[in-house]
Amino acid sequence: MYIISKEAQAFLNATVLAPKNKIETVALVGPAGCGKTSLVFEVAQQLNTKPSHVVTLMCSKDVTVHDISTSKTVEDGNVKEIVSPVLENMCRDNSVTYLDEFMSLPADVAVHLNSMLDHRKEVTLPNGKTYKRGKQAIVFLSSNPIGYAGVKRQHGGFMDRFPTLKMGYIDGEDKLLQSAFPNVPKPDTMRLAQFAKLIRTSQRTKESRTECSTRSLLMMCNMIENGCDMSTALHACLNVPQDEFAAVAEMAKLAMGAEVFKDDKGDETIDLFAEKDKKNKTLETELKTANETIAGLNDKIAQLKGLIS
Ligand SMILES: Nc1ncnc2c1ncn2[C@@H]1O[C@H](COP(=O)(O)OP(=O)(O)OP(=O)(O)O)[C@@H](O)[C@H]1O
Ligand SMILES: [Mg+2]
Predict the structure, then answer these.
(1) Is the CB of 214 under 6 A from ligand 1?
(2) pTM of the model
(3) Over the stretch 14-42, which tens digit does the pLDDT of each residue have?
(4) CATH number for domain 6-166, candidates 3.90.1640.30, 3.40.50.300, 3.40.50.720, 3.30.70.1520
């Protein structure tokens, strides 16, 4: 099961899934394990792309221009030109080409893709041969956001050639965990999803560097389903900097101790702050009673003062 957010669906409907005037090159940018790669394969499936017509290039600084164009080899004394799998696939009809971690592509290599990725949809190589994009030859590029370890910025002129979907972790991760690991108790999947939200909030506000991806949550559930307890699974699947152990343990305690209850609509839900809210309400009532008592006593004092005269 792939859960798609409203924003992602709207983006795809207006680009690669549009019934006409498709935009066939798009980028996906989002944190580790948020579902970029799975989204590419989900779209490939929705478009009924043959598995042999889905080609991935893992980009890195070591990718050369030959990996996206052609290279020469000598066979039986003759020089032979070999078309790279990526170029070959981009020229195929009904194909999906996936350039994963494209920000890692050296800028002088990326530039060779320019004409293939924009409205020209073709590239002419130094040998004079022109390669044209196939019909419905989708190209996905994906990356972690700038600022992630090792992610540098790609040239603006390159980025200008395609729309980018900025992805985040989906809402309803508990439903995903439940469907992937039905033997894990439902309240535990809800607690894990809440824990992930806490971690991400403190990461967003720069209080913490610990990350908790959908991938980590799925691994935790896998371990729990295999008989492991929550806290062992949590420690095994999260990469927590040493100075954040205590803070993360505190968040885990808060999330794992949360009770599941039924909301107004009768749906099961979990509220980490329900306990705190209840305590605050009691204190507010006590304060109100104390204030009323004080007001009553003040009246009495005023009355007595009047009598003394
Ligand atoms: N929206 C989602 N629906 C279903 N599964 C998801 C979703 N998001 C993530 N996952 C699951 O989480 C795991 C990680 O997802 P994926 O590999 O697609 O992430 P990614 O963004 O490509 O990560 P990375 O940046 O590390 O390459 C996969 O097992 C995938 O099935
Ligand atoms: Mg990926």
Answers:
(1) yes
(2) 0.82
(3) 999 999 999 999 999 999 999 999 999 99
(4) 3.40.50.300
